[in-house]
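Q: How would the structure tokens look for this protein?
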Amino acid sequence: MTQSLYQDHFGIRENPFSIIPDPHYLYMSQRHQEALAHLLYGISESGGFVLLTGEVGTGKTTICRALIEQLPQNVNLALILNPRLTELELMASICDEMRIPYPLGTKSLKDFFDFMNRYLLDAHARGRNPVLMIDEAQNLSPQVLELIRLLTNLETAEKKLLQIILVGQPELNHILAQENQRQTAQRITARYHLMPLGLVETRNYINHRLHVAGLSSTVFTTGAIKAIHKTARGIPRLINSICDRALLAAYAEGRMQVSSKMARSAAAEVLGIQVLTPATSVWRTLALALAITGLIFWVGFDPYRTGIKDTLSALIEPLLPPAPESVEPAPVASEPVVAAAPTPPPAPQPSPAQTPPETPTDAPAEAQVEPPTAAPIDAPQDVSQSTGTVLGDMIDASTPDRAF
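A: Here is the predicted structure in token form.
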């Protein structure tokens, strides 16, 4: 009831943001066009697998619906939407989709293979191109995935008789990368991974759906589109849900335009999270910074001497890598020091009084006279004795010889 109310408020007949994959609202971004081109290329080729993967809600099923509308006239399509089947159930489902007759109660895989092989050969003779498309292929069991690989062995000398398209989530790539699935992975002839929408593509996507529904592109403000893209992460299914709730919020407030605040509130309701406004985010960031600063001050200075610093050091120290051992430098070899030999004391010189009398010789008087030699300073002398001897010599020299 509320949905029809906001449709009357905006003057539209249907919800432009329904999550039902409606090809009428399909926005073919560049990535969607590339994905569709890969599928069409795979169908035109002869044999092998075509792989389309993407995150949940990126529009894989919508592309498959668009592919069905663009199939060539000579294509017979079998679409499997529930891959959680056994091997027998899968073969029966394929035969039902392609209208291949088989007896009721058939329990043999060989019988199903024979029925299908005859049908494929007849279709090839009539110029038909049978295609098997399996959605949600990441849910296939290893046994069923191996059976699908064996279906590609149905061939002629010129081409494969059955073309297979696998559509699934990124987990399908991990399954095919396993060692036991290498034979299947080698038969993939084309693959494409569908990425979420960018900001510009999100704006074009929203405006496209508004235009198809008959609304103006100014219903969502620029800030609202940015908030929707950020919270929905560019996933079309989430964009649809958030835009639907935002239009309902605009109707409740009697407005014809969705603001960024309405968009964040709608995202919080759809995703079940708390979306912070810019002002609240700034204050919370500031409060967190102050709390961390206070904690660092408390631990570093410990004003009340609680011992928390030592406690934290004791807890953290075992977690730290051991410090490298310090290596003492090797002692530098020096030249041996040769001790100087002690200087021997000078030999004692005899005093003049102790000098022995010289032996007279025949040499001339001048040659025999030697200058008096001063006693060394270091030689010990008897001052009184030497003084008396000198005075006596002076008296004897000054007194003339007398005859007695």
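The radius of gyration is 56 Å.

Residues 351-371, 373-391, 394-404 have pLDDT under 50 and may be disordered.

Upvote if useful.
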